[in-house]
Write a structure and sequence with these properties.
The structure holds 2 protein chains of 2 kinds. In chain A, about 35% of the residues lie in helices and about 20% in strands. By secondary structure, chain A is of the alpha/beta class. In chain A, the strands form 3 sheets. Chain A has a 7-stranded mixed sheet, sandwiched between helices. In chain A, helix 7 (about 155-165) links the parallel strand 6 (about 145-150) and strand 7 (about 170-175). In chain A, helix 1 (about 10-25) runs parallel beside helix 7 and helix 8 (about 215-225) crosses helix 12. The N and C termini of chain A lie far apart (about 40 Å). Chain B is α/β, with parallel strands linked by helices. In chain B, a hairpin with a 2-residue loop joins strand 4 (about 175) and strand 5 (about 180). Classes of the chains: A alpha/beta, B alpha/beta. At the A-B interface, helix 3, helix 4 and helix 5 of A face helix 5 and helix 6 of B.
Chain lengths: ~325, ~325
Amino acid sequence: MADERKLAYVMAFNEAVKQQMEADPNVFCAGEDIGAFGGVFGTFGGLQAKFGADRVVDTPISEQAIVGLGVGAAVTGLRPIVDLMFMDFICVALDQIVNQAAKLKYMFGGDAVLPLTITTAGGGGLSAAAQHSQSLEALLCHIPGLKVVMPSNPYDMKGLMTACIQENNPTVMIKHKRLLGMTGHVPEESYSIPLGKGNILRPGKDVTIVAYARMANEALIAAEELSKDGIDCEIIDPRTLQPLDTDLIVSSVKKTNHAVVVHEAVRFGGLGGEIASQIQELAFDYLDAPVTRIGAPFSPVPFSPALEQHYIPDSKTIVQGIRDVMARV
Amino acid sequence: MDLPVHVQLDLHRRMVRIRLFEEAAGRLAESNRLPGFLHLYVGEEAVAAGVCGALNDDDHITSTHRGHGHLVAKGGDFNRMMAELMGKATGYCKGKGGSMHISDTSLGMLGANGIVGAGSPIAVGAAFANRYRGRGQVAVAFFGDGSTNIGAFHEAANMACALHLPIVFACENNEYGEFTPRDKTMAITDIVDRAAGYGMPGVIVDGMDVIAVHEATVEAVERARTGGGPSLIEAKTYRFYNHHGVQNLGLKYRSDDEVAMWKQRDPIFTLEDRMIENKAATRDQFDAIWAELRADIDAAIAFADESPYPTPDQIMVGVYTSMSGAN
């Protein structure tokens, strides 16, 4: 469509927040530098000017109290969006995320609703080194009570962020820092993408690639390269990692008989292990080769571009990984 | 002592309810009828009663691992509390939370908490929401002396003051963080010294004197309701039993003399003696109150005993709001 509106990933986030704040007076935002400054990545830009300092709140650098602010406000009836600037900083706030937000409803026998969205920015590729580049989603997905969302493009970002804000459970929305400037079609009107439903990013018949966030885009590049060799890749972007759309993944694998899981997080203990395990439990008889995982090596994220470019998987790594899998047939 | 007699009797009643509930829970625990950990509030009743007596029904509190007293003082139902301690389906948390997570959001009681210091940031959130809605509600964070050494408390206190929120930080200084005396874990004697560092007023009160606690809370709550921001109240108090349970594995970390000295200052008997002396009430009146509330406790134990345990199909219920998120 010639008149398709294009929007950057970062502004798709911003627009979802803005529209939900317009729609629901109980929605507010709080975090470090998000008010007058608009957030270090510009994700909250212009919102304080529009909605005022009472609804877009600059906080101290206090991650435990930021999440606690969200927990307390959510359980008493508001719909908070609290921002942790970098995903690495969830570690500072883990008690409030893991022991409080995730469990309050359950521990209270169901007598609590926590419509809380925690937003953060994950992923590497900016030479931000080991404390500002991590992909810690597996840690969050391991916690009953949380939902975990990682959009791979602007359209998904807006729809998933809208769903997060409207969701009545604590949700962690992980923006990928390297996707902030990615542009794509984003409708102006408000829409939501259901949490827990994956997306077939590219249909194919030979091999299933499960990839999310920036790796979904690398997988698309890899698929084009592999198509030259006559390998037709189907790319499944789960969009939401908790709950995971296992049905979509398994039905794809039953068709292609091959599966490769790709993530930017370190391979060991990563979500790839869980996804691979689900596939072998539910589609073992359909597999023509072992399910392969592509992820980062088991080291902290290195600083130097000379190291980091080899550390984070990319389309070339994925191409090689898929060739290896197909060669086993 | 200028408080109206009916207010004094209300505070007294809250304290007796706590005492009877906790004594009963202690007896049940000693006869192995309660699963899990039990942190008894006996001795500290004046703090929960004095503070909660100054709150409205729609004000919020966050609590601690020693949280039964806070829920009782906020109006908690004995039956549902006792059933929860026994892990029954009729309990406040349907047997999912137990002693350390007992809660009633309809009473504004946002949960006992198994993590030391974790309640204070949540109280900040409740205070934020209260100001946001503009209905004049306040939040109170109950916490112990030991929790003022953990980061979450500092973050909460600073943020509450930076945002000028309607909140009262109510410290129960019982002089021990679990089994270790306060002077081994901090270089200050009075928790209230910390208040100035955040930019809020702080006051020390006799935590064995419910009237003193109440009056200090009324002032702090008034400040919070009228836009005056946070306050800190340090109530000097003492737990008559141990960190958990009654006998506490027989560990010896406090002298008998010290325990006896504090028991001499029992907050309930102190109030009763004073009211009788002031002719505000009679011994017969108090005896009738104890008898009435004892009957409530007996009924609660019977209710809990007769209640069913939750069935295994309840394990996955309540992980998420709606079951859509369950994997």
